[in-house]
Design goal:
Elements lengths: L3 E3 L3 E5 L2 E6 L4 E5 L2 H21 L3 H7 L2 E4 L2 E4 L16
Parallel strand pairs: 1-6
Antiparallel strand pairs: 2-3, 3-4, 5-6
């Protein structure tokens, strides 16, 4: 079976670097821009999954990670639905 795999990509900026994280697989990568970091983390996810597929364990790995087929694509049942900043007042 061939399917698209939809993953979450979270990008942070720290100084002049960008760090992208795929929380479903705990894979991280960096780049000079947000787009570069996203591309790099998706490539890292692909390499990670290719290694698991090479060992013949991809279907089991994806099932254990909570991925299901949804509309012809593989998606995690547990999905990130919102990221926001909040404000808490503290004594400083």
């Amino acid at each position: 079976m061939i399917a698209d795999l939809v993953v979450t990509v979270v990008v942070y900026r720290e100084g002049g670097r960008y760090q992208a994280i795929c929380p479903e697989f705990e894979v991280e990568a960096t780049g000079q821009s947000s787009g570069d970091a996203k591309e790099e983390v998706l490539a890292a996810v692909r390499r990670h999954l290719d290694g698991i597929a090479f060992r013949g364990q991809l279907a089991d790995y994806l099932a254990e990670a909570g991925f299901v087929v949804d509309g012809g694509v593989l998606r995690a049942e547990r999905r990130l639905v919102e990221v926001d900043e909040g404000r808490v007042t503290i004594a400083f």
